[in-house]
Fold each of these.
Amino acid sequence: MISKICILLALLCLAFTPFLRAAHLPRLEKRGAATQLIVDGKPFLILGGELHNSSASSREYMKPIWPKLKQMNLNTVLAVVSWDQLEPVEGKFDFTVLDGMLTDARRYDLRLVLLWFGSWKNGQSHYVPGWVKADYQRFPRARLKAGTAEVLSTLSEANVEADRRAFAALMKHLREVDSRQNTVIMVQVENEVGLLGDSRDRSELANAAFARPVPAELMAYLQSHKDSLLPEFRKLWEAAGFKAAGTWEEVFGAGAKTDEIFMGWNYARYLDRLVEAGKAEYPLPMFVNAWIVQPEDKTPGDYPCGGPQGHMLDLWRAGAPKADIYAPDIYLPNFPAVCEEFVRNENTLFVPESRGGVQGMANAFSAIGQFRSIGYSPFGIDSDPDPTNGPIHHTYEVLAQLAPLILEHQAEGGIAGIWLTQSNSTQLIKLGHYTLTATLRANRRNAAADGTERGYGLVMQLGADEFLAAGGNVQITFAANSPGPQYVGLASVEEGKFVKGKWTPGRLLNGDEVMYGYKMAELVAQRQTGTGLRFQSANPTIQRVKLYRYE
Ligand code: DGJ
């Protein structure tokens, strides 16, 4: 009897092992208002940086870089794994470089987001192995009006199958060597896909597919989401008469925009099949990234046509539903506007590539504080000129201290990001019974003369009359937005740090450190006291304020 029970228990354990293991894997989880990345069972904020494209291909080259990444206060490194290095001979995989990277990342207590440079990187197919490059008959290329591009066609079964096998081998290997440590927390599938140089592939395969009816899965998605489609996407379908079936040109009208939808669908299906094969081996969160439309681009093909653009989110959701996130690479100056575009359609924000430096500081605070991003990552992090005292070092130092509170507030509400420039120098934030006004840091006597270019920060509500704010070059004032006494004064302001998660106050701020103006008649008429939070340095600091109201 006892042995039967033992056998039963053993069988039960075996049956549940995959579930137990999966519960410990990094995953995305909906928590209140946010979708968050869970690592080792807890919400995790990616304070990341992406290496230059070729850095991670050499363990030797990376040796002096790891300590710098640590000095910058990164907790996660985004690093390339390329198909050509992984499968130099068909069916023979070489994991040496990857295994070295895992060992080194663990040594520095850093997590990894791996970037699978497979069929495409920036729209090109430069990272496919030599045996794929050379065999262009087996692995067909895309054709532009101008000729054959060095780009795999999305329409070839041989192409997607070869990439799938390699990607699945990578994920299987990760399961074998990393599922206990969770060094790798997420994977980017391909890089900035899309066709450059034309609005669609004009190979024979592509022409045949373009002449066929729009696939039933896409039509079904359009019908079932008719009322919630993003306006720019819906408009195309509407203009062609909301048809329930037909060729691409019948359903969406003829032109480059329809070509883009056709390309987007085929890239999305291709990548979805990769994600499916990879997750079947090892179900880490997986995302795809977009080279977003630049101001000088006139038509699809000037930017990679068919990529997961903000205006294509519906199409990508329909075609690549297994991908967890459609992520923008944001180098443009209008950072918050791009984030805004990419949080539509229930998309979770992650910014795998963006700027470092002073702009990076503001972007990180905005993405995380305003748009509930799971993290931020400047590109080319290995060439940060000042790892021990630069903007990224200071930004991540503060964001690391605040991470537990930020993650809690992302889920439960009561958080806002601040992103200010000279041309966008005021931001109103409603939190609880207060309206906060954030402005660029100002000189008390002559605000205009201060000349601050950029201010940034985030604010979290800790209690009915208590806030915690962090930022640089920014000033925050408070006004009442509920009935009752309308003047808001500062009961106390502390600057401080979180040491091992515990608030540790430094100076008690008062006097010049909180006073921003003495024109009392004007200020009082506006129900202002002339005091507020003043973040005078470019590097971020943290302040905690208690307010009171009077009449
Ligand atoms: C975007 C790409 O995704 C990166 O791999 C890199 O090429 C950068 N552009 C260069 O700025």
Amino acid sequence: MVRFTKGVALFEVSAPSNIALIKYWGKTGNQLPCNPSLSMTLTHAKTLSQFKVQIGSGKFTFLLEGSERIGFDSKAHRLWEKIAESYPALLKYDVVVDSRNTFPHGAGIASSASGMAALAQGLLALADVTDKKVVSDFARQGSGSACRSVFDQFALWGKSEHLPHSSDLYACDVSNIHAEFVNMGDAIVIVSSREKSVSSTAGHELMNHHPYAKRRFEVARENLAILLAALEKGDWEGLIDVCEREALELHSMMMTGRPSYTLMTPATLDFIIRFRSWRDENKVKAAFTLDAGPNIHVLHAHSEKERVEAWLNELISEKKFEARLLFDVAGLGAQTIDLSEAQQ
Ligand code: PMV
């Protein structure tokens, strides 16, 4: 429950970004997925949103690092309107949200996932709603993949016969995870920090008339079944196979779409080739994946952290490869922290 002191409530929501192993690419209706997706929740790459609330008349202000910005701002307003429509009690407040991301812009980490999860969780806290399903449902309406950032470690979004409590409306925990995959690391290799040349809206749109869409949605389901079994058994070979095919399928869809987009760069492919040969030669428990951009995520077993980081650092220091690195790890979903005491 949000605490008001002298008519003002001050709290922060910390919401992580997530990286999909099974990709959501293609949507229908009110932001519903054409296939189920499965992601790992990150720890360090997150959005921190401070909420300052006082009694008022339903004025909503959204700031990014202290100033109003066009773009994310309008998405944030739309989400506020949706939540206030379902919970009109919110209209008795004036709400100022000041958001910042802990990760650099253009790092290939989805800020809409963490940003929308933080916003949904904070606004719903004002209506005393903490049920993760509801938070996830509204986060989804802000940005599809955001619904997965509410949950710890691994989250699944989309109805699947393999998880009876799964739904297209919200994400849920994937709890049957072998010790091999707990606290999995994610080394992010930034080969380009240029803005994405295709918005995810345009990317999803591509799937509405893509010649391979129907088969892609079926294959995503098949891949999900293989991944769930691998996660349960601790099967790295299975995870590597599915995870890397999913990344390449996402990019193939873009390349063979109408219009066609190429979001990988030569550096992405060069890295993939080097990585696969090092990984296979040294039997490293690690797999790459890609988001809708050129940067690479190297998912790896907790026990492989040193080997993976040492190899990446060496690759870069020897100038065999130009990139920046960010190291992350699987962690907790969105959290709300009361700041009113710190303020007094
Ligand atoms: O949530 P959106 O609309 O930004 O779409 C995210 C799409 C991917 O990041 C490419 C895949 C995913 O499942 O996160």
Amino acid sequence: MGVPMKCLIVNPPEKGVEIKDIEIEKPTDKVLKIKILENGICGTDREIVNGLMATSRPPVNVNYMVLGHEAVGQALEDGKFIHKGDLVMPVNRRGCNKCLNCLTGRPDFCETGEFVEAGISGLHGFMREFLYEKEENLILVPKGIEDVAILAQPLSDLEKSLSEILTIQGRMIWTCPEGTYICRKALIIGSGTIGILTSMLLRSNGFQVYVVNRRDATDKEARIFEGIGAHYANIGEDLEVLKTMNLSFDLIFDASGSDAELLSKSIRLVKNNGIIGLFGFPSKGTASISHKDLQTVVFKSLIVVGLINGQRPHFERAMQRLAEWKSVWPDVVKELITGTISIGDSNSVISALQMKKKGEIKVKITWA
Ligand code: BGC
Ligand code: ZN
Ligand code: ZN
């Protein structure tokens, strides 16, 4: 028997989104009932809504999917560790139940590719009134960060990325003489939500941070980057202008997902033993790499790595990180939530899901 509730429904890979009352099947496993309080809107949601995400598909046996992979809700019943009234965040990717990585809680490294992602592929998402969720998929929101807790989901992807970068760079001594990363220079391409969160994360780990985009920083971005001690540059159309500024980097993090061509340009900007992390999903272009650039990869012992999806440990870390940021950078953290739309305002919800507004960092949909 299904439970009737209001949901945001999409039909991937076709475009479109609507708010609808539907019946959602209650799982037979032991689950906790959660009242959704808010959802975050992410670029991936917009790709799905606009029919641009070819890999997005509904759960088996239905031809629609509930959207949403960023959510904070309130537990309506007691579990083992979670108590009635607690605020919780669900983890969005679930394992294939076959490979060792999934069986040990790391479907971010699923071997079979048969994982599912809530609101993205093969599993209903979190933009709905209620969620029935196993306790093992729920992360407790610590007291004091309720207002920004929604950021823990995208931040979990980045905590995972950073931990992967540090693990890979553990192939040598990558820390500076005093044991920190303050001598390491990081370049972040893109100053959207992910670029901003990454700049904060790298700054709180001691890195020197340079953020670039093809335009001037907005006033808000300028305040944020100044607040955390990161540099910002408008590089126009060409990443390689950084070379003329005599800049090269230990880490290049693509948070833009713009042009595949960025790869060869990044290879020319990275230092010996450097690492290039691709986080955005490139949406155009071809990465044609010349033999000279490939030689550089060999001679400089470079690494190019794809970075995706945080899991439980990274969600937990992200929650703690937000608490830390609220205390060290309170004014910066206040800039991050740029809008709140009530689910009752359906026209605004739909248009926010279709298009990013200028100056937006994170917009929430609220259900309370
Ligand atoms: C989510 C990730 C997910 C990725 C790919 C992102 O928007 O935050 O957790 O793995 O999309 O679907
Ligand atoms: Zn996302
Ligand atoms: Zn797996």
